[in-house]
Specification:
The chain is of the alpha/beta class. The chain is 49% helix and 14% strand. The protein has three domains: 110 residues, Glucose Oxidase, domain 1 (3-Layer(bba) Sandwich); 109 residues, PtsI, HPr-binding domain (Enzyme I, Chain A, domain 2), CATH 1.10.274; 280 residues, TIM Barrel (Alpha-Beta Barrel). Helix 1 runs antiparallel to helix 2.
Length: 591
């Protein structure tokens, strides 16, 4: 057995076996606490300004050196440059210097602490993870103030890179060809280390507890990017097992990547479009590399949650235009803001809601805060001149609600026309079907829109009345529940009768046990996490519509979810044994 096994969050699949190499450990920057005289304050403010300027210059120089295979990470460096200009951080530090007559290092510490109090009170993963970016930038400025900034160590052989955290300036300058895998103490699914690892297609685990205390430089370790584990000084038996698993996975990856750019067409000629779900601009490269035929769901929330001020129209316009331009001529479906008031109370105060999940969220939030909605709609319409953008409204529950949204959307078009701004008035308009009420009136809603997208994650939760993240009831989250399948089929049939396309996104679209059933229903497209696209495409290309329809009939005739699961697993395991060896490990959790 290994000397020790520690765990974290898997953010990039695969197996790596090699020597540990620490880039940095969190030893902490010793910030001196000094009380200054009034005559020293001007020089102290200038000292802070020079340090900020020095870090900004370093970032600008690094940005110029970004290699082609990491070019998409320029946006992260840009966000760090924005933090340097943020009044809530360094503006507050300057005020502390003036008002409390303290030195710059300690003023930064106090400013970060104030932000941490605000951010930690928010029940939002994106916001809490942005604290890591703030801390990284603050530490860099303090290092300049203290004169303790370090150069990156030289890597002489291929290693598994370990770090407390990885800054963009670090990862851009590293010799990536010598890095087998990443592991960090900090981070979550949207952290920079995870984005970079997926881009480079190397395993990564973040948020690892005990990483810095448990591992020394040179230790032999196994990094398991499937389960998020690190085995320290593994046994011979474990080395053999994981080496075999690594070879099998690499062979499987090579196989599915070889054909991932081919159409997803069954052996008897039925073709379904396979799109990608993304939430970060940096994921576009992965969509293209993995054979995505477009973006079926661009979650726009990140641009609002990843900052302390609301984005303006031009910022959103540039983001959407650049995304559409990169993907052109492939389709890009932009979902309008789908958040609740509990996610943005840091921007405009807390709203009391007993049950936010059934409250002011999705399209309801946008209808209440029309200025935010107006800004986003204007940006989407202007970006629509690229020619491949569709717009999608989330959590529509009724006909009146949809008509009010469309009315407002037309008003925005009139505003742009009067202002003489270029925009596309013919952007396809769709809605997400994710509440039972919308399912029941799908025939009425279909007459009002150009397409449907079935959001299965929420639809299952609302239909079955369970929270899939609640460990006490998560076992009830059953995609093959008869009620769920009947809901989906009802929507697909209603959409097709009205002559509109029906897409499906969420975990079901990336689940090999569900995809043949969805095929049997004749969904027009599915949208899933980029990492799952090659495997799902391969399953579709090996299947036939005849067997998919036969499976669907058997499942719809079943009155018991356990029986349905058994029927599906028996069919899938017999038809696609190779895919199931790894495939379930490749499916990232959808939000």
């Amino acid at each position: 057995m290994a000397r020790k096994v520690i765990g974290g969050i898997p953010v990039s699949s695969g197996i790596a076996i090699g020597k540990a190499f620490f880039l940095n450990r969190r030893r902490g920057l010793v910030r001196p606490r000094l009380v200054l005289s009034s005559s020293e304050l001007k020089d102290e403010l200038k000292r802070l300004e020079l340090a900020i300027s020095s870090v900004a210059q370093e970032m600008e120089e690094v940005r110029k050196k970004i290699p082609a295979d990491l070019k998409e990470h320029e946006a992260i460096l840009n966000s760090h440059l924005m933090i340097l200009k943020d009044e809530k951080l360094f503006g507050q530090a300057k005020r502390f210097i003036q008002e409390q007559q303290i030195n710059a290092e300690w003023a930064i510490e106090k400013a970060v602490f104030e932000l941490e109090k605000i951010f930690n009170a928010l029940d939002n993963e994106y916001i809490r993870q942005r604290l890591q970016d703030i801390n990284l930038v603050a530490d860099k400025v303090v290092s300049v103030l203290l004169g303790t900034q370090k150069t990156l160590p030289k890597i002489s052989q291929r290693v598994i890179l370990l770090a407390h955290d990885l800054a963009p300036t670090d990862t851009v300058l590293l010799e990536v060809d010598k890095i087998m895998a990443f592991a960090t103490t900090m981070g979550g699914k949207t952290s920079h280390a995870g984005i970079m690892a997926r881009s480079l297609q190397i395993p990564a685990v973040v948020g690892v507890e005990g990483l810095e205390e448990s591992i020394q430089d040179g230790d032999l370790i196994i990094l398991d990017g499937f389960e998020g584990k690190i085995l320290i000084e593994p046994s011979e038996e474990e080395l053999t097992r994981y080496t075999d698993l690594r070879y099998q996975f690499e062979a499987y990856q090579s196989l599915i990547m070889r054909y991932c750019h081919l159409p997803a067409e069954t052996i008897d000629g039925y073709q379904v479009k396979v799109f990608a779900n993304i939430e970060l601009f940096e994921e576009v490269t992965s969509v293209i590399d993995k054979g995505g035929e477009g973006i079926g769901l661009y979650r726009t929330e990140y641009s609002f949650l990843n900052r302390n001020q609301l984005p303006d129209e031009d910022q959103l316009f540039e983001e959407y235009r650049d995304l559409a331009s990169i993907m052109y001529p492939c389709q890009v479906v932009i979902r309008t803001l789908d958040i609740g008031s509990d996610k943005v109370d840091h921007l405009f105060g807390q709203i009391e809601e007993a049950n936010p999940a059934l409250g002011l969220r999705g399209i309801r939030f946008c209808q209440k805060y029309k200025n935010i909605f107006r800004t986003q709609l204007r940006a989407i319409l202007r970006a629509g001149i690229v020619g491949n953008i569709s717009i999608m409204f989330p959590m529509i529950s009724g006909l009146h609600e949809l008509r009010e949204v469309k009315k407002f959307y037309l008003q925005i078009q009139e505003e742009l026309k009067k202002e003489g701004l270029d925009f596309n008035p013919n952007i396809p308009v769709g809605i997400m079907i994710e509440v039972p009420g919308a399912v029941l009136i799908a025939d009425l809603l279909a007459k009002e829109v150009d397409f449907f997208s079935i959001g299965t994650n929420d639809l299952i939760q609302y239909s079955l009345g369970i929270d899939r993240t609640n460990k006490h009831v998560s076992y009830l989250y059953q995609p093959l529940h008869p009620a769920v399948l009947r809901c989906i089929k009802h929507v697909v049939d209603a959409g097709h009768r009205a002559g509109i396309e029906v897409s499906l996104c969420g975990e079901m679209a990336a689940d090999p046990f569900c995809v043949p059933i969805l095929m049997g229903m004749e969904v027009d497209s599915i949208s899933l996490t980029p990492q799952a696209i090659p495997g799902i495409k391969r399953i579709i290309r090996q299947a036939s519509m005849q067997e998919c329809k036969k499976l669907l009939r058997e499942i719809l005739a079943s009155d018991d979810v356990s029986k349905s699961n058994h029927i599906v697993r028996e069919m899938i395991f017999s038809r696609f044994p190779e895919e199931l060896t790894f495939f379930t490990s490749l499916v990232d959790e959808e939000k």
